[in-house]
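Thread: "does anyone have the structure for this chain?"

Original post by V.I.:
We have the sequence but no experimental structure in hand. Need at least a predicted one for the grant figures.
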Amino acid sequence: QVQFVESGGGLVQPGGSLRLSCVVSGSIFSRRDMVWYREAPGGQRHLVARVTSDGDTMTADSVKDRFTISRDNAASTLYLQMVNLKPEDTAVYYCNIELSGGRLFPWGRGTQVTVSS
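Reply from O.Q.:
Generated one for you, tokens below.
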């Protein structure tokens, strides 16, 4: 059974930084393409960033140059470094494995990020 445990969220002022972590169990992490999604209050879940098993990365235009996705295969852990945070980044952040055709596993609990002064 694949499980995701996200952590690292919190309350931060605009312009601040956070580093999210996601520990993955139940799958061969190093062989998987990994993604971060976020869901704002009352909104839909959107893709934020992706890192392939080969290490290629993609970030959404809305967070480009501010968010960096990375992975530690030895620790089966996915990261999202976020700098210069804005109020519109407020959301619950989730990680997942991206399968062929964009399919995803059942979600974990996510981690709340709140950007507010």
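V.I.: this helps a lot. The longest strand covers residues 18-25.
O.Q.: and The CA atoms of residues 6 and 22 lie 4 Å apart.
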